[in-house]
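Lab notebook, bench 4. Still working through the backlog of constructs that have no structural model yet. Next entry is a single chain of 433 residues. Request: give me the structure tokens for it.
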Amino acid sequence: MKIFILASALLSWTRVDAFPRLQPEALGSLMEHSNRSGDCPYAAINKPEKRQIGFDPKAQYVSTTGAHAFIPPNFAAGDQRGPCPGLNALANHGYLPHNGVADIPTIIDAVNTAYSMALDLGTFLAQYGTAFDGNAVSLDPGYSIGGPTAGGQILGGLGLLGTPTGLSGSHNNYEGDTSPTRGDLYLKGNDYLLQVDQFQQYYDALLENTHAPEQYNALFNFRQARFNDSIANNPYFFFPQFAGVFVSPAGYAFPPAMMANHSAQYPDGYLDKETFKSFFGITGQSGSFKYQPGHERIPDNWYKRPVSDGYTIPGFLTDVLNYARRDPRLLSIGGNTGTPNSFTGIDVTAFTKGVYDGATLAQGNNLQCFIFQLVQSEAPGLLTGIYSDVTKALGALLKTISGDLVGLGCPRLESVDESQYGKFPGYKRAKGV
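Model written out:
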């Protein structure tokens, strides 16, 4: 979890020449580490342990037969599919309930069983999605992987002030702009259906006959182009702390990390283009692709990443920082201010009322403290109109976060200045302001 320290450091930006930048002190520290390590700046601080990755076909095989045979969704009957192709595929293969509504333990188990997503990342994402887009106070807390629906015991019960939106209605809470395959909400009118032209760009950028980590590394130009496209065309572009800085990179990192097929030749995975098409519900040939919503499927004869090399929060954030080292804007909190090409970052010192700034964020555990405390501080206000008892709704998520903060000696962040968000129309529009 210490990778959060550097990730948070890169959030300490102020506006210069229309883009947020690192404070001089933090920038100097970052560059010093980078020069010393010759690698990602994080590597000099806490270099991840290298693992010998092997291939065990029996342990890594993922079944697509019997109980896990592909069954497409029945939308007329109320089945839900949404913006996450990986979750859609799990519902189509019976690893998640076929109706697309699942409780937290089922979600955690499904992503671990089928994709080797580690328990730390799977638990955090399931708890966050439930609190913000599902029902965290039901008898079996969980959420819809698509839109609003009658979810019985999972989504029903007392304490909820409205209908859970599901992931398809989670703009700026879970889903965000700059997705690789989904359009910006205020440009395309929805943020959950695949845009074939964007998929084509992703497909073209995916290197063939290449190990998955190198495939991800080579997707940087595509990721940067999508970010620039939102800035240049979406006056309502907003890049918040969670949906932007944390979740948005997943669309680029997760396919090579968890959709790649593994073999003795590619023990660290290779995402071939037919596998890529299958996971995204695409048929046809390049240049004339056809998209069938909700028909994402796990290919036959597909082998997941080794269980011993599960995709963890530190592993994911290492991938995030890989790109951020080359374009620090990708870790900014900010957005356009009502016109294209007006991207502005928040002032972290004013935002935290002086508790954090560019100089102190680089010291000790302050940076890790900042990013977790920001979630703790903002979540109650964001959920006030959703639950009658916000404390109960946030119990599981905040308990997980508090466990990570124990013993870090964090400065006390009482509250944040949310008026900093007032200059971003995309933020206000998503909140109905």
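Notes after review: The CA atoms of residues 240 and 333 lie 5 Å apart. Residues 366-382 form the longest helix (17 residues). Flag for follow-up if needed.
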